[in-house]
Design goal:
The chain is mainly alpha-helical. The protein has a single domain (about 5-190), classed as Orthogonal Bundle (Tetracycline Repressor, domain 2), CATH 1.10.357. It has helices spanning about 5-25, 35-40, 45-50, 55-70, 80-85, 90, 100-105, 110-130, 140-165, 170-185, 190. The radius of gyration is 19 Å and the shape is globular.
């Protein structure tokens, strides 16, 4: 039975969503096409009706999950973002967490296309954070951007280091606690003391 174009698009979106979660949880080399398609509820043969290669799916899945990560934090101020990002819940939720924290190390060894997708996601995240960053009127744009690059790199690194430790390790929690406190302490009082919006 032939499926409709609408159903085909829905199937593709489901495959992308499934791949996004599996890639974040196990890395790009940790899951093959057959297993990925089975997890999505389809046969391996259907993969190439939707994608030219696994690399194509990797890029599309990354773009999808980077966009969703950004939209999920759009209501938070900078301090709220740090508290959410550098947390045990995020650390433990690899498959549903930020793509950058889960896959930056893998992306560094992948194609230029995938790296470009990550660069776009990083730029979009930086722009969103910079827009919410409350600084004095005399602070230059370049200074705010540099601060957000530092903040994002620090937050991502904290999660990655914590995940490299055993789940029950006290060091895993210590890394998150120390880095979260240091990042927040480095923010101007006008940013760090703002009331956080509820999610």
């Amino acid at each position: 039975m032939k499926i409709t174009k609408t159903q085909s698009l829905a199937n593709r979106a489901h495959i992308v969503e499934t791949a996004s979660e599996l890639f974040r949880d196990r890395g790009y080399d940790g899951v093959g096409v057959a297993e990925l398609m089975a997890a999505a509820g389809f046969t391996q043969g259907g993969f190439y009706k939707h994608f030219g290669s696994k690399a194509d799916l990797m890029a599309e899945a990354a773009e999808n999950s980077l966009s969703k990560s950004l939209s999920s934090t759009c209501d938070l101020d900078v301090t709220g973002f740090v508290n959410l990002y550098v947390s045990r819940d995020h650390r433990d939720g690899r498959g549903v967490g930020c793509t950058m924290a889960a896959l930056c190390g893998d992306a560094a060894r992948q194609s230029s296309e995938l790296k470009a997708t990550f660069a776009d996601g990083i730029e979009n995240t930086l722009a969103a954070l910079e827009e919410k960053y409350k600084v004095g009127q005399d602070t230059l744009h370049e200074g705010a951007r540099a601060k957000m690059i530092d903040l994002l790199a620090h937050a991502i690194g904290a999660v990655m280091l914590s995940r490299a430790c055993p789940d029950d390790s006290s060091l895993a929690d210590e890394i998150l606690e120390v880095c979260r406190a240091e990042i927040i302490a480095s923010l101007p009082l006008s940013s760090a003391n703002e009331p956080q919006e509820s999610t």
